[in-house]
Specification:
CATH class of the largest domain: Mainly Beta
Structural class: alpha+beta
CATH topology of the largest domain: Elongation Factor Tu (Ef-tu), domain 3
Shape: globular
Radius of gyration: 19 Å
């Protein structure tokens, strides 16, 4: 589990269709540790002084932007939380729901505004003022749009994550709020259980 608060901007040293090596300043990574790489939860299978190697599956390759990363690409990194960690962002699992495309970036006075487009499945779990993870960054949705959503980013976040290198047309990894997923499943199940016989049996009709 992660918080969406980025700890380091790493650099891709090598990448293939199933393995990635990331250079990082994080010095306490151990073999077997979970690390969020642009919002994707990966397991370190090998660790050296300044880098780690992680494998990823064909499903991860399909759902996320990992396959599009190239050597020297910068990525957001966060280590998994511990029982003593502060939960400063929101609960992020590292299980990416899908991808979004940056449609617009505007620099405003004191902050940045970014607009993203995404598919209806991802959008169905988004709410105004709700939490969302974009490339592993914990952010808040300011507005919902017919085709996606809008967020505002403070300079502290913008300048200390890979958002500073992003441009329109770039794809990003999206993880929606885990509580929204549970709520939607609960509501869908409750709705599907309602029938005329059930209502009659319980005295509603």
């Amino acid at each position: 589990m992660f918080t969406g608060l980025i700890e380091d901007i790493g650099v891709i040293k090598n990448i293939s269709t199933s393995r990635v090596e990331v250079e990082t300043k994080l010095g306490n990574i151990k073999k077997g540790d979970s690390i969020s790489v642009n919002g994707v939860c990966l397991t370190a299978v090998s660790v050296s002084k300044n880098s780690f190697i992680a494998d990823y599956s064909s499903h991860t390759d399909k759902v996320t932007t990992l396959a599009r990363l190239k050597q020297n690409t910068k990525v957001n990194l966060e280590q998994a939380v511990t029982l003593s960690s502060r939960l400063g962002g929101h609960i992020v699992s590292g299980h990416v729901d899908g991808k979004a495309v940056i449609k617009k970036i505007r620099k405003l006075k004191g902050f940045y505004c970014m607009i993203f487009s995404c598919d209806t499945e991802v959008l169905s779990y988004c709410i105004k003022k709700g939490s969302i993870s974009v490339d592993g960054i914990s952010l808040t949705i300011s507005s919902l749009l017919d085709f996606g959503f809008e967020i505002f980013i403070i300079p502290e976040t913008f300048n200390n994550t890979t958002m500073q290198f992003r441009k329109t047309g770039d794809e990003v990894n999206i993880e929606t709020d885990i509580f929204a997923k549970y709520m939607k499943k609960f509501i869908n199940k409750a709705t599907s259980d309602i029938s005329f016989k059930m209502l009659k049996r319980n005295g509603f009709v």
